[in-house]
Amino acid sequence: MDIKLDTKEIKFKYRVNGVLIVNDKLLVVQIMDNGFFCLPGGHVMLGENSKIAIKREMNEEVGVVIKDSFLFLINETMFTRKDGIKVQELSFFYKIELNNLDNLDLSDHIKYENDEGVVKKLDFRWIPLNNLKNINFKPNIIVDKLINKDFLLEHFIDE
């Protein structure tokens, strides 16, 4: 069971996000044609920690086995979706290291994922780091950190 709470006024999400860089290109995903790209990842499940969750999510979404992951960012944010629903999100961002690149799809591709009974379209793209400012990427607050490959631990509160 994913760790998330929904009320009439606000939704809460506890998420993990993976930073995978190959040849100075960052793997990003657009979910259900929502109009913006983000990092692959997903909800932490009840009873698991964020380090286990990022390994599970990257395996489910990207099909990779993580050698190691390093926490470099904690982001707390509040935003309002297009449909007017307010969201509070706690996200842990991990720099990902793989054992090898043998199973990694280095092409732009679309994948369909069954997420708790809901089929979701995932549009994966490899974006050159120096082009990251030219796409609609969220959370925008971490773009410079990614471009500069700054993986020193930070805590952002984005209101």
Topology record:
Blueprint: E1 4-6, E2 10-19, E3 21-22, E4 25-31, E5 41-43, H1 50-62, E6 66-80, E7 86-98, E8 109-115, E9 118-128, H2 143-147, E10 154-158
Parallel strand pairs: 2-7, 6-10
Antiparallel strand pairs: 1-2, 2-5, 3-4, 4-9, 6-7, 8-9
Question: In a few lines, what is going on in this structure?
Answer:
The protein is mainly beta and 159 residues long. The protein has two helices and ten strands.
Strand content: over 45%
Q: What's the average pLDDT?
A: 93
What percent of the residues sit in helical stretches (DSSP H or I)?
A: 10-25%
Instruction: Provide the structure class.
Output: mainly beta
Uncertain stretches of 5 or more adjacent residues: none
Shape: globular
What's the Cα radius of gyration?
15 Å
> How many DSSP helices?
2
Q: Sketch the major β-sheet.
A: 6 strands, mixed
How many individual β-strands? 10
| Element string (H = helix, E = strand) | EEEEEHEEEEHE
Measured between the Cα atoms of the first and last residue, the distance is: 27 Å
Keywords:
159 residues; mainly beta; 6-stranded mixed sheet; 4-stranded antiparallel sheet; 10 strands; globular
Describe the overall structure.
The structure is a single chain. The chain is mainly beta and 159 residues long. It contains 2 helices and 10 strands. Strands 1, 2, 5, 6, 7 and 10 form a 6-stranded mixed beta sheet that branches. A 4-stranded antiparallel beta sheet has the order 3-4-9-8, with no helix packed on it. The longest helix is centred in the middle third of the chain and has 13 residues. It is globular, with a radius of gyration of 15 Å. The protein starts with a strand and ends with a strand. The mean pLDDT is 93.
